[in-house]
């Protein structure tokens, strides 16, 4: 069922935890310390792959067009867009016009010293710029080239332009997001781009392991639509086995009940009690323990068959309480449940603080910026934000050319 959207309880009055500052400017540390990466991508997919590798300790040299830089420098919301500060952290900016012979030679020189190259241009672009990965790997046999694109490097659609939203549509995501009586919706973040980047990073790590054993690099081909397809659970298998096509179902997943967002007097609250034992605990918390033995709700399939009926029954109960009252009840009962957070909730939450899920990075223009930390957490070689995003295009050219190439800019 669709619950009307309402305002949550304000969080501004909640006590705010002490600030965690994980920024490490020492320039060392992390599992990938010593790995050199050249990032030639722009916007989201390529740069996010670079962010992930940089968070784990790799040195990321980002090549940017001298005049404009990466367009991500201007992305974000509010009067002080800050997305660049997240996606470009732990990176060094080197200005290079890849459309010019001089810029292409600079790229080749840097790539010859690199372990990994990241790019997310339309297939064929590198080759057009005299940066064919085959030639680059001939000069540097251990080079790993991560290529992120809309449709992959091969196949009939490979030359098409493809942004994240197109990959989400082709991979099946957009078709199942939203309510059945409305057009397909989207998530509020660019999930197709970040998934493709994450799989590109995963491929790079696997390729590094292969190189450690053989000395040989390879190409990592990560397509946006395939990255989305990979997380689509049994969508294709269910169609193959039973002819069933998943459709848009709003905030509920068909056959998984109860698991929905339920109304409270001051907002909405998510409860997931679709396992038999957990549902029994929820029923007891509701003061209706008999529901767990009722043939209509006692099993997974039975609850799934009466999903809307069960959601309505639970929703009538939750509507009598505030979010705080319901949360206390769910915690006491051991039922998986939680508030629907926004950024203000995250900044104020003590669990985020205790796990250092948010870090503070000093920024010369914007002051101290809060942003997501480094995940996953490694016990022996934890990642970190070692340096803030470069403020100007090419600000690190002299430093990088001296350290990597032993020459002046």
Automatic annotation (TrEMBL):
One of its GO terms (molecular function) is CoA-transferase activity. It holds the Pfam family CoA_transf_3. Gene3D superfamilies: Crotonobetainyl-coa:carnitine coa-transferase, domain 1, formyl-coa transferase, domain 3. Transmembrane segments: none annotated. Residues 1-31 are annotated as: Disordered. Residues 1-22 have a biased composition (Basic and acidic residues). InterPro entries: CoA-transferase_III_domain, CoA-Trfase_fam_III, CoA-Trfase_III_dom3_sf, CoA-Trfase_III_dom_1_sf. Keywords: Transferase. The keyword Secreted does not apply. The keyword Transferase applies. This is Formyl-CoA transferase. It comes from Sphingopyxis lindanitolerans. The lineage of its organism: Bacteria, Pseudomonadati, Pseudomonadota, Alphaproteobacteria, Sphingomonadales.
């Amino acid at each position: 069922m669709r619950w009307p959207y309402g305002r949550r309880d304000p969080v501004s009055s909640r006590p705010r935890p002490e600030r965690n500052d994980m920024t490490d400017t020492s320039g060392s540390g992390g599992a990938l310390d010593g790995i050199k990466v050249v990032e030639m991508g722009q916007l989201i997919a390529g740069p996010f792959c670079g962010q992930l590798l940089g968070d784990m300790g790799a040195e990321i040299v980002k090549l940017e067009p001298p005049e404009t830089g990466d367009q991500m420098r201007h992305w974000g919301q509010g009067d002080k867009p800050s997305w660049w500060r997240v996606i470009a952290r732990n990176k060094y900016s080197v200005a290079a016009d890849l459309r010019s012979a001089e810029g292409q030679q600079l790229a080749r020189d840097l790539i010859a010293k690199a372990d990994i190259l990241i790019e997310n241009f339309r297939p064929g672009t590198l080759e057009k710029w005299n940066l064919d990965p085959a030639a680059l790997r001939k000069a540097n046999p251990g080079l790993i080239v991560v290529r992120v694109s809309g449709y992959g490097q091969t196949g009939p659609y490979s030359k098409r332009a493809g942004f994240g939203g197109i990959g989400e549509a082709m991979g099946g995501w957009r078709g199942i997001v939203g309510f059945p009586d409305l057009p397909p919706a989207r998530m509020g973040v660019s999930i197709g781009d970040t998934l493709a980047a994450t799989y590109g990073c995963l491929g790079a790590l696997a390729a590094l392991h292969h190189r450690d054993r053989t000395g040989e690099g390879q190409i990592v081909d990560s397509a946006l639509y395939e990255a989305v397809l990979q997380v689509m659970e049994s969508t294709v298998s269910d169609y193959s086995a039973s002819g069933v096509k998943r459709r848009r179902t709003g905030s509920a997943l068909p056959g998984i009940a109860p698991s929905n967002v339920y109304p409270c007097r001051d907002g909405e609250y998510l409860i997931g009690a679709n396992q038999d034992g957990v549902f029994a605990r929820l029923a007891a918390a509701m003061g209706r323990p008999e529901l767990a033995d009722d043939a209509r709700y006692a099993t997974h399939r039975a609850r799934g068959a009466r999903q809307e009926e069960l959601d309505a029954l639970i929703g009538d109960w939750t509507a009598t309480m505030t979010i705080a009252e319901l949360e206390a009840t769910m915690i006491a009962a051991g039922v998986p449940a939680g508030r629907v957070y926004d950024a203000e909730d995250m900044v104020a939450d003590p669990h985020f603080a205790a796990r250092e899920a948010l870090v503070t990075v000093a920024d010369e223009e914007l002051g101290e910026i809060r942003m997501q930390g480094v995940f996953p957490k490694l016990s022996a070689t934890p990642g970190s934000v070692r340096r803030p995003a470069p403020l100007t295009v090419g600000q690190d050219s002299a430093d990088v050319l001296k350290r990597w190439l032993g020459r002046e800019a």
